[in-house]
Write a structure and sequence with these properties.
The chain starts with a helix and ends with a helix. The protein is globular, with a radius of gyration of 23 Å. By secondary structure, it is α/β, with parallel strands linked by helices. Helices cover 46% and strands 16% of the residues.
């Protein structure tokens, strides 16, 4: 019974840690809950017990933070409620295995030297997050670093080390708190280290890592608010066409952006007259259009962003490269799941890994579609050529949930890492403009139909993270693990 209570309390720590993320933004709370996790690891009897604590924390963390996957499977995917509940639980349990790994590694390699163990905790946690970010195509959602977007001082480290680097620093501070609070002689050096990191982050946030161009362009980000359950009904196609054409005509700009699969048809089936009318809306500002729509090539379908420019007669297209398992493609071994879900357009082909930016409105624009912007090291492939980043999303799949504000917070981190403006055009929310400092400048209310008009500047240059990717944080992980390993060897 004592073990069950301990694990339940550890799961509660994980659940409370989610309050550090959007929409709540209580970023110090995530660090405090991580400190509680480290204390659970510290007092565990065996590495296996520490792994169990990590699993309990992760289960509470993900069941609270990403339970919106139930909405996509049940409300819009047609899966029965009991089966969707089991699938959500299994999915979150799979994610929790990574935090279990972090707990196991911490106690297995622990040296007993408190400051080394603090670095080891940061290394173990960050390694598990990095692994979660690419294994089985990756799911880095709710990496701890995302909770530290502005106004957190740790956001200043994002242009240097990326989100995993901010995770490392978050867990380092948390471990310092956990390992020092019971020992008076440790309190001063631990507090000084934590305060030093926060002060340094505050100073780094004042650095302009990239250069804004002199020329400013007007943009109009359209949010149609088409209900997902109705969107793909053929008889309602004209309604979607009319909604977006009306928004474009009423909100002209040098760049008009329509979100992911805004028009529920394929590009080749879109009436040419409609395209002329859409371009006519942009022509009043001598502008261009970026359109989220399905494209096809022979028998293959792509989730694409198509650039339509009066100055460039050639079709410019970006096709989504990082597809969503079970939503946009089905792994061969899981073809049987298709009978449990009814998701339209769920068999896409993958676009090229290295695709050039699109020349629109005088800028070099790099689109990313839906949750592609969760993968920071993939976004920086387009740099330094790209001057503007634009995310096209349709998160209507997740209903009125925390998915929308969490996704916007992810866009804040990508803007920080790249030193670029990140524009977001979404079907139901959250359509927004994020500046290179990771601050949300403008946003549309979710679940409303409208257009977000803004003036933005492209940026040139490279942040350290854009230049080196995750190499810096992986070096920190190796350093933390190496110090612990060397200390253990000397003790043996």
């Amino acid at each position: 019974m004592k073990i069950a209570v301990r694990l339940a309390l550890t799961a509660l720590l994980g659940a409370l840690g989610v309050l550090g993320f959007a929409p709540f933004g209580l970023f110090p709370l995530t660090i405090l809950m991580l400190a509680g996790l480290v204390d659970c690891w510290r007092t565990a009897a065996t590495p296996r017990a520490a792994a169990l604590s990590g699993f309990a924390f992760g289960l509470g963390y993900f069941l609270t933070g990403v339970s919106w996957v139930f909405v996509s499977m049940h409300d819009f995917g047609g899966m029965s409620a009991p089966l969707a509940t089991v699938a959500t639980l299994l999915f979150c349990a799979l994610l929790a295995l990574f935090s279990a790994l972090a707990g196991y590694l911490f106690l297995r390699l622990r040296s007993g030297v408190w400051w080394r163990d603090a670095l080891l905790a940061a290394a173990s946690w960050t390694f598990s997050e990095w692994l979660r970010g690419w294994l089985f195509t990756g799911f880095p959602w709710l990496a701890a670093g995302y909770a530290q977007t502005p106004p957190s001082p740790l956001a200043g480290f994002a242009p240097l080390l990326g989100v995993y680097g901010v995770s490392f620093l978050s867990m380092w501070i948390a471990a310092l708190l956990a390992l020092a609070w019971t020992k008076r002689d440790r309190l001063l050096p631990a507090a000084a280290t934590a305060l030093g990191l926060l002060t340094l982050g505050f100073g780094l946030a004042r650095i302009e890592w990239t250069q804004a161009q002199e020329r400013e362009i007007s943009v109009s980000l359209l949010q149609g608010n088409i209900e997902q359950s109705l969107k793909w009904k053929p008889e309602l196609l004209q309604q979607s066409l009319a909604v977006y054409l009306k928004l474009a005509r009423e909100n002209p700009a040098q760049l008009i952006v329509l979100p992911e699969t805004a028009l529920p048809t394929t590009y080749d089936q879109l009436p040419r007259e409609y395209l002329r009318q859409l371009m006519g809306a942009a022509a009043t500002e001598k502008g261009d259009v970026l359109l989220g729509i399905v494209t096809r090539d022979e028998r293959r379908y792509y989730n694409s962003a198509v650039g339509i420019s009066a100055a460039n007669e050639n079709l410019q297209r970006y096709s989504k490269s990082h597809l969503v398992p079970f939503g946009e493609f089905t792994p061969p071994a899981f073809a049987w799941t298709l009978s449990l879900l009814s998701i339209p357009m769920s068999d896409f082909s993958r676009g090229g890994i290295q695709q050039p930016p699109l020349a629109l409105a005088g800028e070099q624009i790099m689109p990313n579609i839906c949750y592609e912007d969760v993968f920071g090291e993939e976004i920086i492939r387009a740099l330094p050529q790209a001057t503007l980043l634009i995310n096209l999303s349709n998160t209507a799949w997740f209903g009125d949930s925390w998915a929308q504000p969490q996704h916007l917070q992810i866009a804040q981190m990508r803007a920080l890492e790249t030193g670029r403006v990140m524009l977001r055009a979404t079907n139901t929310g959250m359509t927004a403009v994020v500046n290179p400092r990771g601050e949300i400048e403008q946003t549309l209310p979710p679940f409303t139909s409208g257009a977000l008009k803004a003036k933005v500047r492209g940026h040139s240059g490279l942040t350290p993270y854009a230049r080196w990717g995750n190499a810096g944080v992986l070096l920190l992980v190796a350093l933390g693990a190496g110090l612990a390993w060397s200390a253990r060897r000397r003790q043996q």
